[in-house]
Amino acid sequence: MIKHTAIAMGLALAGTMATAQELSQYEVTITNITQAQTFTPQFVVTHPSDVFLFRLGETASEPMEIMAEGGDTSALTDAVANVATDAQTIGGLLGPGETASIVVNGIPQQGFVSVVAMMIPTNDTFMALNHVRLPPSGAKMRMVPAYDAGTEANDQNCANIPGPRCGGVGYVGEPGEGDEGFIHIGNGFHDLGTEDADGSEILGPQTYDWRNNVARITVRFMN
Questions:
Q1: pTM over 0.70
Q2: CA-to-CA distance for 5 and 10, rounded, in angstroms?
Q3: pLDDT in tens, 162-188
């Protein structure tokens, strides 16, 4: 299986670069509405219509895989550097019931916004606001689901899950047995037992399951 494809940007390199006079400010507010999942640092990017961080049913790009398996947004930042209107990461973890905000630049009516962050503890699940048009005024609110990157088997094994709860391995970068190979809607946690053959803890649905949606994201036009 080929896991690493270029990030989906269409003819993004030919996209029009905004001038300072065309830009407006937007406040992006993210609320974690899960019971026990935490969001890793949240990547927020404004961009032209021909830029996509991911598409459902297609293979995740390597920058998306790195984010979805380990929570690292630096590869995504590099990938959109030449095509994004603005790209920023809200640092730190966002726990259940918590809210974080950031102000980014965007182009009213023409521009789009996308937001992604890994969910921990999971193998390769992430929350995302995917390619939503910026409002020309007022605010736009979206309830957003969890997506599975399809790059790692969902074994719920702490040895394969990074973060403070498990402390396991994050991004590996090698094809794995049991990965789905394409991005799809996440289907939550399942009862896979409590312990692997080697003694590693397996997490269960009683605490860590979700039923989409997992986040509320509001994009508010400021000026």
A1: yes
A2: 13
A3: 999 999 999 987 766 778 889 999 999
Smallest CA-to-CA distance from 71 within 51, 57, 48, 92 is with 92
In CATH, the number for domain 24-221 is 2.60.40.2130
pLDDT digits (tens, 9 = 90+) for 70-84: 999 999 999 999 999
| Total Cβ atoms within 10 A of residue 133 | 15
Whether the CB-CB separation of 148 and 124 falls below 8 Å is answered with: yes
Q: What is the mean pLDDT of the chain?
A: 90
For 115-161, the DSSP string reads EEEEEESSSSEEEEEEEEEPPSSSEEEEEE-EEE-SSS----BGGG-
**Per-residue confidence (pLDDT) for residue 6, from 0 to 100:** 40
Q: Where are the domains of the chain?
A: 24-221
Residue 151 φ then ψ, to 5°: -105, -5
d(CA 113, CA 163): 27
